Input
Amino acid sequence: MLANLKKNNLINDIYKDTSNTKELASFLGIDLEKLPAHIAFIMDGNGRWANKRGEKRTSGHRAGVKTLRNLVKAFRLLNIPVITVYAFSTENWKRTPEEVDFLMKLFEESIMKEARALKEKGVRVKFIGRISELRESLQEKIRWIEEETASEKDLIFNIAINYGGRSEILDAVKSISEEVKKGNISENDIDEKLFSEHLYTAGQPDPDLIIRTSGEYRISNYLLWQLAYSEIWVTETCWPDFAIPEFLEAIYQFQQRDRRFGQTK
Output
């Protein structure tokens, strides 16, 4: 479908103006009444994008912020209520100290730069992961933007930072164990619903769709509990080049799938 779309002048408009997202979705045959409630992203390929251009990896990370900004706008226009992005994993600490330091500064800079626009668009920002292990200056800005946007209800914007799916599950187990010790719950109370209530994404729907850029076919320790029945869509496109038309292509393909959740017809 994208190959045909690129022959149409609409493709040029959408690259320039995100406000055309809804019209383009309708043009592609997307059912706007049956959109995913929650889409998660593995934003892969920033470094590869920069390397191909003979630039530093840091330029790829900066370019990736623009991609994310446009996607948040698209989510609001389509009224999709939850977006989750994998910004920094527990394994990413293995990168060079220079790149890690740059990313931490970029997170702080982006929080301060984007906060006003996010609040004006009705976006509630939530950071998920082991936030207490981040440097204090970043923790302060995270607490600030979460408090600043806490009353917004149009879109939940989860940013996974110092996040690992296994760590999240372990943290949930520890939290439940404490509740059992305190006598607040019994072992017989523990079921999938209760367990979900102790995850970082408590109270939110599980992702219907996970999109991974840059062509890798793996989950990478991301939302391991929540992705149990998510549809997976992978593109070879590196994250900084991931634009609205391809995002809509993913949604279109999602709507063509038969989601049986283990049932037979």
